[in-house]
Write a structure and sequence with these properties.
Mean pLDDT: 90
Number of helices: 6
Largest sheet: 4 strands, antiparallel
Oligomer: single chain
CATH class of the largest domain: Mainly Alpha
Number of domains: 2
Strand order of the largest sheet: 1-2-3-4
Number of strands: 6
CATH architecture of the largest domain: Orthogonal Bundle
CATH topology of the largest domain: Arc Repressor Mutant, subunit A
Helix content: 25-40%
Distance between the termini: 54 Å
């Protein structure tokens, strides 16, 4: 029996990765990320044989798109996307619930633990699940560090 998720041999790779809406360079994202975070109605339209990309451009409604330029917008995703949502309750770290508000409290009031150290500790213990929790499909540590530094 063939694994439903193993289609690596049939995925297309002939695309430059620019968002079809904003034209900015996007980042390749694994299929498991879309399977985990798309709403059921959007998931039903997913072509698993295409490469998929994450658009991080703040003012672009597109979150994901594929090599055929099929787009998935903010409303197609189950969670608020940090790069596209200004709410203070939006997570920056989706695995350990570090929101903009929580990080701001740490910086302004010294509330512990330090978000970066907390996340690193959990990464070291192999507890994160960024590919299924974070819409960008990769580690949040860079985003958390940048956001924390901007507040300091």
């Amino acid at each position: 029996m063939e694994d439903c998720c193993s289609n690596q041999k049939t995925i297309k790779v002939d695309y430059d990765g620019n968002c079809p809406s904003c034209k900015n360079k996007a980042k390749n994202v694994k299929l498991i990320t879309l399977k985990s975070l798309l709403r059921p109605s959007a998931l039903e339209t997913l072509n698993a044989k295409e490469n998929h990309y994450f658009c991080s451009t703040e003012d672009c409604e597109v979150v994901y798109f594929d090599t055929s330029k099929k787009k998935y917008i903010v409303s197609d995703v189950k969670v608020a996307v940090y790069q596209k949502n200004d709410s203070v309750t939006t997570p920056i770290c989706y695995c350990f619930d570090w929101t903009k508000e929580k990080i701001k409290q740490y910086v302004e009031k010294g509330i512990t633990p330090n978000p970066v150290e907390h996340i690193r500790k959990n990464i070291k213990e192999n507890r994160c699940g960024c590919e299924v929790n974070n819409p960008q499909g990769s580690c949040c540590l860079g985003n958390v560090t940048k956001f924390t530094n901007q507040l300091s």
